[in-house]
Amino acid sequence: METKIFKKDQIDEAVKLLAEGELVAFPTETVYGLGAIATKEKSVKGVYAAKGRPSDNPLIVTVSDEKMMERYAKEVPERAKKLIKHFWPGPLTLLLFVKPGTLPDAVTGGLDTVAFRCPDDQLTHDLIAKLGYPIVGPSANTSTKPSPTTAEHVYHDLKDKIAGIIDGGPTRVGLESTIIDLSVKTPIVLRPGEITPEELSEVLGEKVLINTGKVADKDVPKAPGMKYRHYAPSEPVVVVDDPADFGKIDFNDKTGVVALGSVLDQINLPEENKFDLGKNLIDADHNLFGALRYFDDKDDIETIYVQGFDEGEESLAYMNRLNKAAGGHHLNK
Questions:
Q1: 48 known member of a binding site
Q2: Binding of ATP: at which residues (predicted)?
């Protein structure tokens, strides 16, 4: 199968492919998603096959607006309406009870809940609106690998496995959306993202919890990113929590370092062995997956050391992704 690259003015061709049951990758403000009509079980199963994704890992349903979501949600509680009004379109995913019989088990994992998202990307909004159906939207990459933030990343992983890729340029955020579970008594963040628990709590006017538990091997996770290893390059990743500790590492030409520019300036390594995350945490969020992919493509790198940040509301998403990529491996822990 030849994978076609579509420009911004070729949305209609992508719509046609999706309507025929094909898979098409699409841009969002967070990362690129892999789209298939959410109501077509065969197409949805094709997403799992293309990614090499475990079949018990539920998919996010991407909609054009709240009205489309209402066709598939059992109910839209007042909490959800508050968050939609404040954050949609945007990097927030809502876990709600699914309307029975509307979506295949391949989407829900056989659960009675499903996650809905409305991205802040006009191309994708137009794509779904013209299609008339929601699409599933897991990250458009090989399962376990760093998520794609450019069309080139998608092509690298899924060339000849999917029908098309809509090139919307680099993504703005660079990390996946926040997922909040609204099917429980007290709202809980299942996956951190750009929108913080504190921001969600302010809008809802109530406490928002943060999930810290692990999903047992026999259980189906309620949302993506909760059970399986994610975001990992082929080489081992080590988190360096204190920038001063970079000075304790015995670097060589097989070492890769990912850090803020001010930290990299103090490290004596060839430029090709360093990846600049930028000036601050916002830049680091945007560049983390690109950094991991940069070194994943290098055959001569054996270990990647990545700068960590003090864990708090603002760094929650970054550290969540980095800890998963590193398998919890920290330099001094």
A1: no
A2: 53, 57, 113, 139, 147, 191, 231
